[in-house]
Amino acid sequence: MAAKDYYQILGLTKSASVDEIKKAYRKLALQYHPDRNKGNKSSEEKFKEVTKAYEILSDPSKRQTYDQFGEAAFEQGATGSAGGPFGGGFNQQGNPFTYTYSSNGGNFDFGGFSDPFDIFEQFFGGGNPFSQRAQRRSTYSLTISFMDAVKGATKKVNMDGKTQNIKIPAGVDTGSRIRFGDSDVVIEVTPDRKFKREGYDIVKDEELSFSQAALGDVIDVETVQGPVSIKIPAGTQPETLIRLRGKGVKSVNNSTFGNHYVRIKIVIPKNLTSRQKELLKELEGEKKKSGWF
Q: What are residue 201's DSSP bridge partners?
C-alpha cells in the first residue's frame, strides 16, 4: 500500500504554516464529521484520515519526524529498516491516545490519534458536539523538566489558592493530563539539549572520529536509564542508528520501556597536520588502486 501524504490529505504543501494547517483541518473536519454524514463509511474514514494528518503536522516534533522519515514512523507496531529511526521499536507499547465516542448509538474510532473532544473545543470555541461529554473540568498547567517527565516526580501546584502536591508518573509528555480531584493538570515538558524524545523512544547523536568509524571502537553512551557501553562496528557510516532496547522512557500505562537510538555523526577535522594530510593522500591512493574504501 502506498504511503499517505499528510500534506496532500489536508490540501497543503510542505511549506504550510501552523495556521494554514489548523484552517485546513477545521474545514475538512467540519465537512467529513460523522455527525454530518451519518452512516457514510467513506466520510468516517476520511475524517479519521484528516484527523491523523492534523495530529502529525500540527506538532512540530512529529512534523519534523514525518518530513524526515515519512508515515512509517507513526505506524503502530511498524518494523523499521536500517535506514529508519525506530528500528522496529517505535510505539511498541501501544498508542495511549485511542478514543471512541458514541453518537446516537453509533461508535466511531479515531484510529489512535487525538482526543476529539479537545480538538473540537479548541476549534469551535468550547462548543460541545458530543451529547455524552462530561462537564468541563477546571484545568491547570504545570511545566516540568525533561528528566522529571522521564523519571516521575512530585510537584506543588496552586489550585484555587491552595497548594496541592501532585504526583507526576514516569513517562508523561507535553500535553499529558493528570486528573486530580475535580481538576486536570496539563503537563508541559521543557525540551532537553541532549536527548530527543519520540513517543517513548529516545534519539541521541553521538560523535565519532573518522578513525573510530572506520576501525571500530567501544564507546560510553549516556541514556535516560544510565550509561551504557556499546561496540561500534568497523566501517560504521554517518547517520547509522544503533538501537539499545529498553533504554528509553517508561510507559505511563504499564511497565514497558521504549528504546534508545544512537545516531552516529562523523566529525571531520578542520585543521590537519602535514603528516595527517600525507596519510590521507596515501589512503586516497589506495582507494583508487583497489576500490576497497
A: 198
For the stretch 210-252, pLDDT in tens is 889 989 999 999 999 999 999 999 999 999 999 999 999 999 9
Segment 122-153, tens digit of pLDDT = 444 444 444 344 456 788 889 999 999 999 99
Q: Please say whether the beta carbons of 164 and 180 come within 8 A.
A: yes
Domains of the chain listed by start with CATH number: 1-58+95-134 (1.10.287.110), 137-192 (2.60.260.20), 196-271 (2.60.260.20)
Q: Nearest 5°: phi and psi at 196?
A: -110, 125
**Per-position DSSP letters for 129-194, written without gaps between them:** --TTPPPPPEEEEEEE-HHHHHH-EEEEEEETTEEEEEEEPTT--TT-EEEETTEEEEEEEPPPSS
**pTM of structure:** 0.53
Cα separation, 161 vs 182, in Å, equals 15
